[in-house]
Amino acid sequence: MKDELLTNRAWVEINLKNLEHNIREIKKIISPKAKIMAVVKANAYGHDLVKIGQKLNKIGIYDFAVATLEEGIKLRENDVSGNILIFGYTRPDLLKYVVKYDLIQTVVDEEYAKKIMQLPFEKIKVYLKINTGMNRIGINSDNVLFIKSLYTSNNNLNIIGIYSHLCSSTSNDFEDVAFTKLQINKFNQVIDYLKSNKINIGKTHLQSSYGFLNYNDLEYDYVRIGILIYGNYNDNDTYAKLHLDLKPVLSLYARIVSVRDIEKGEIVGYSRTYQASKKEKIATVSIGYVDGYPRSVGDSNVYVKVNGKYALVIGRICMDQLVINVTDIPNVKEGDIVTLIGDDKEISAENISSKLKTISPELFGRLGNRLNYIFIDN
Ligand SMILES: *Cc1c(COP(=O)(O)O)cnc(C)c1O
Q1: Catalytic: which of 41, 55, 186, 203?
Q2: What are φ and ψ of residue 13, in 5° steps?
Q3: What is the pTM of this model?
Q4: Whose CA is nearest to atom 11 of ligand 1?
Q5: β-strand partners of 129
C-alpha cells in the first residue's frame, strides 16, 4: 500500500525504539541466570507479529512464544530465528509442521503425550507443561512417574524443558499468594524429583509478566514476558510489586471526518443513548468497533485526544465511526488527527481497559485487520 494511504482513516503506530527500551528495563530486574522469552502470540498483542519478531532478533532476543502453530510458521517464513515455543494445542496430524519449521510443541496433557509418541517422527521438540492447579492444560504435577517416563523411555520426544503457569500472580491477597506459593512448590517438587533421579530436565520457566513483577526472586531459566515488552500493564489496578519505567509501543489514531453543532435535547447515534444537555459541538471520527476499538466504549466515560485536548466519546460506537464531544476544543476540523490510545495516562491502554473492565492484552489483541500499521524505528 502507498504510504499516503496508510493514514487515510484509522491506523496503528508501532514504536520499535520503545520496544527496545522496554527490553532494557526488564533486563534491569531479571535474575542474571535467566533470559527473556518474548511472548508474541495474538499478532504480538496486536503489535504485528513479524515486525516485532524481527526487531527482537535485531536486539538479541532469540526466544519466543506463540499460541498457535500458524503463528510459529509465520515467524519462520519471515526469517525470525531462535527458539519458538507453541503454548497451545496442535492437532496431532499437523505436528509434522512443528518438525518441518523447527518449532517446539507444548505437551498439553498425558493423553497428548501418548499420541505424540505413537507418531512416526524421528524426534520432535517439545516442552512438558505441568498443571500445578490452574487446571487449564498440563500434565498433573503429582503424576511424576509418568513425567519421568517421558524423559527416560525410548521415545520420539526431544524434551527441551518443562514449564508451568501461575493463575493468581496478579494479586497480593493472602489466599491468592498462598495458592501461588502452592503452585511454585508443586512445580519445584516435580523438578526436584526429576533431578534426584539424575534426569537432565532441560529448561524451566514459570512466570509471565506479573509473576515476574510480583515473585521476582524466583530463579528459572526463562521469564515469559508478554504485556510488559509492549510497554503496558494489564490495567490501572492490578497489583504490581515492582514498577518498571515502560514506554507504550502502540498508539492508535483516526481522523475527524465531520464537525457539527447540536442543540440542547438533540440525540447522538444508535438507540439515542446520548442526549445533549446544552448546545454542543460534536465531531465524527473515522474508526469503529470493527477496527477493534471496543463497542463497549460507548457510554463508558472514555476520552480521546484531539488538538492536545481530551474529548469524551459519546453515544454508541458504530461499526466504522464514532462521535466525540468537542464543545470545549477550539478549531477542530475535518482531517484532524485523533489519538485513541497513546502515551498519555488518560488515553493509555491501562486506563481504557480499567474503564471497560478488561485488561490491555484484550484491548490490543482485538485491534482489527482493517487498521493500517506504521512502524517507527529511530
Ligand atoms: C500469554 C502467556 C504469557 C504472557 O503473559 P503476560 O501476562 O502478557 O506476560 C506467559 N505464559 C503463558 C503460558 C501465556 O499463555
Answers
A1: 41
A2: -115, 125
A3: 0.97
A4: 208
A5: 163
Nearest Cα neighbor of 16 from 42, 65, 50, 39 is 50
Ligand 1 atom with least separation from CA of 224: 10
Cα dihedral across residues 128, 132, 138, 139: positive or negative: positive
For residue 271, give Cα distances in angstroms to 294, 297, 299: 17, 15, 12
Ligand 1 neighbours (beta carbon < 6 A): 39, 41, 87, 165, 208-210, 224-227, 361
Q: Pick from 79, 66, 11: which is nearest to 338 by CA?
A: 11
Active-site residue flag, 148:
no
Distance separating alpha carbons of residues 302 and 342, to the nearest angstrom? 13
Query: For residue range 33-53, what is the model confidence (pLDDT) as tens digits?
Result: 999 999 999 999 999 999 999
pLDDT per residue as tens digits for the range 134-182: 999 999 999 999 999 999 999 999 999 999 999 999 999 999 999 999 9
Q: What are the residues facing 312 on neighbouring strands?
A: 303, 325
C-alpha cell recorded at residue 48: 504485528
> Which helix (H) or strand (E) is 34 found in, with range?
none
Active-site option among 270, 279, 309, 333:
270
Q: How many angstroms from the chain centroid is the CA of residue 223?
A: 14
| Ligand 1 centroid – CA 267 distance (Å) | 43
Known catalytic residue: 125? no
Distance CA 71, CA 306 (A): 36
User: Is the distance from CB of 236 to CB of 350 less than 8 angstroms?
Assistant: yes
CB-based burial label for 116 (10 Å; 0-12, 13-18, 19+): buried
Residue 254, C-alpha cell as written in the block: 483516526
